[in-house]
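Researcher: Go.
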Amino acid sequence: MEQYFKINDEITIGPQPSAAQLQTLQNDGYQTIVNFRNAGEDEESMSPQAECDAVRAAGMTYLHIPVTMKAMAAESVDLFRKQYSELPKPIFAHCKSGKRAAAMAMLNIAVQEGLSADQCLQNAKQMGIDFDQPELTTFMQTYLSRHVDAS
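Model: Structure:
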């Protein structure tokens, strides 16, 4: 996932933007930037604090929820889902490649729509999103089995 990918009218995902790309996103009408990267990750174009400063200087809202691929936590998804409804839209969400951001967006949609893990993963695949990391797929299945059935 090397480019921006529009999930729906509210959220687009992709890799971490540069400072110049943040300005382009603002010019394109994005209201919020959500960063799922951890500070100090490989190939980090800006630290979370530098990105926060640049986003706010551009007049947008910034949210940082650090998530790792190998240790995704239900609490991180819950935090994103809780914040999502209040964030100004449209949102650009990112991580290094866009996969964690895609997972968070798809989990949010799946819970909102009451989709099973299989339905969520099938929808992602139809959109061209391939969750090729087994840990991520397993996490998504576990999360949705607990949250869709309980909602």
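Model: The first strand starts at residue 5 and ends at 6.
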